[in-house]
Amino acid sequence: LKMLEFLLPPPPSSWDKNKESKVLRSISECTVAPIEPVGSEFLAIARRRRHKRTLSEDARIEEALREANEDDNEEYEEEHESKKLLRSDPLKWKEQDHYAVLGITKLRYRATDDDIKRAYRRKVLKHHPDKKANGDDSFFKCIQKAWEVMSDNKKRREWDSCDPTFDDSIPSAKAKGDFFEIYASVFEKEGRFSKTQPVPTLGDAEGVREDVEAFYEFWFNFDSWRTFEMMDEEDTDNVDNREEKRYLERRNKAARTKLKKEDNARLNKLVEQAFKADPRIARFKEEEKYAKDAKKREKEAAALAAAEEAKLKAEAEQKAKEEAEAAEKARIADEKKTREAAKNAVRKEKKTIKRLLRDNNNFLAADADAQAVGNQLVKLDEILEFLDTVGLEKFRARLEEAVPSGVEILDLVLDEEHLHVQDAKASKKDAEAARATTDSKTEKKSADKPAWAPKEIAILIKAVKQYPGGTISRWEKISEYVMDHGGDENETPEAKAKPAASDRAKLQASVQKAVKAVNLNDVPTERATVNTDAVIPPVSAAKSAAAKSAAASKPEAPKPTMAAPPNPNWSTEQQIA
């Protein structure tokens, strides 16, 4: 029993002791009373101290007890607990069968989360330490560890991967008996580790090709979640040294990788072995062989039927031609019907719009004069003339919507549509003008070049005289001479160079064509001389004079060794030179 002492705080420093004071209340003397620890919180503290539990562990266990009491009326088949199981050491929890501890060995990996939770409640209710006379809680700790593993999906998968009751053996390749009875159960138990669920089954002897191929495609690309953390030889949880812990983790990881490779190799061996022994695969191969033979026979039959096919082809072509003609006629008729329907629709819309105008006093007030009515009719005619079927439908719909609002709104709708039509016409006119301008510019650029001037022809004659036939690169030199001495006196060198370069290319092309017309004579040819001092008449006069002179002196004219490029503006003498 402890005494409680109550002391009043000292008075403030500003307190005047001589000041008159008055006692209003006083504190009575303390009485002695017994105090006993009671209540749920005290019991919880005592329970945790007795069983050495943490606050969260105690809360979880007590919640399981309450839920187990609520589920006490549930019927379930309780599994037998052997003495060996009840003597399980909680420190060797990796070696214990958690499903056996929870009493769900018949379900095992098929047990749902709800099944595990209910089993845990029942076991907590049955084996709670408070119900043990000697207070032994070893098996209860095993139950807690089993719940800790089975309630965590990651830990449960790690334990299921190394379930001691799992038989990972595969049948022998020489096993005798029914193929499906031997391998169906093996693939079923291996399917528990698949990330993809549900797993396709082996099927039976009557399975179709698509299902069988899908089955082996799945197993040849099997994606397993099986891991081997539970097989770690080194426990790193109680290692404090960081370097040592990393070393042990590397060893454990290497061991897991090795076990995973061995498990994958075992599974691949199982699938390949089943594929080779599957009677359906052999049947499919026979069917393929038969199909190839049938295809070969079909080719032979097709060769024999080629003549008949040629005959039928001509008939089919004739029939197709007739059908095409009939289809074309039908298409033309349909197009005609469509056009007629469109015209009828346009007439109908125009008629409806005119009726709306007539029924609503031309969208004008009652006292509107004849000129206003005429303007309305002109606007309407422009709109009806410009709009297509869709535009007329929209315009008519807007008018019908505006009818209840009165003639003023109808007049606004008419004016708005008229403005839209005028804008569209103006845009169309501008586009046509721009297109016409572009076309005129294109035509102007593509206009023919002007004919040669008399001065240019005189320069060309001098060049031909200076470089007679037989000169190496004759026409290249002639073109360079014309380029250097021809053109307008006011032209710049760049302006002269462009047409000269084009003419040079034409001359070279003419030379290449003229080479084919070489005429070799036994007698040496004579070169005609041209009087360059003579005054050259205009082109038209030069043409007529040259033609007469050529006609008079044609018998005595020597034959050139190489035909010069033809030019309609040259005289005969100029071409001979």
Structure write-up:
The protein has 577 residues and is mainly alpha-helical. It has 4 domains: 122 residues, no CATH class; 112 residues, no CATH class; 117 residues, no CATH class; 123 residues, no CATH class. Helix 2 packs across helix 5, helix 12 packs parallel to helix 14 and helix 13 crosses helix 15. The chain is extended and about 140 Å long. About 9% of the residues have low confidence. InterPro entries: DnaJ_domain, J_dom_sf, RAC_head, RAC_head_sf, SANT/Myb, ZUO1-like_ZHD, Zuotin/DnaJC2, Zuotin_N. This is J domain-containing protein. GO terms for molecular function: Hsp70 protein binding; ribosome binding. Keywords: Chaperone, Cytoplasm.
Précis, in short:
The protein has helices at 40-51, 55-70, 83-86, 98-102, 113-126, 138-150, 153-161, 179-190, 209-220, 242-277, 279-304, 306-359, 370-386, 389-402, 407-445, 454-466, 474-485, 493-514, 539-553, 572-576.
Which descriptors would you attach to this protein?
577 residues, mainly alpha, 4 domains, 0% strand, extended, Hsp70 protein binding, chaperone, RAC_head_sf, SANT/Myb
Question: Could you give a short account of the major beta sheet?
Answer: none
Helix/sheet category: mainly alpha
Shape: extended
| Span of the ends, CA to CA | 151 Å
Helix content: 55-70%
Strand content: under 5%
String of helices and strands: HHHHHHHHHHHHHHHHHHHH
List the uncertain runs.
513-525, 527-566
Tally of separate domains: 4
Number of helices: 20
Rounded to an integer in angstroms, the radius of gyration calculated over CA atoms is: 57 Å
Q: Please provide the count of β strands.
A: 0
Mean pLDDT: 79
InterPro entries: DnaJ_domain, J_dom_sf, RAC_head, RAC_head_sf, SANT/Myb, ZUO1-like_ZHD, Zuotin/DnaJC2, Zuotin_N
Organism: Blyttiomyces helicus
Pfam families: DnaJ, Myb_DNA-binding_2, RAC_head, ZUO1-like_ZHD, Zuotin_N
Main location: cytoplasm
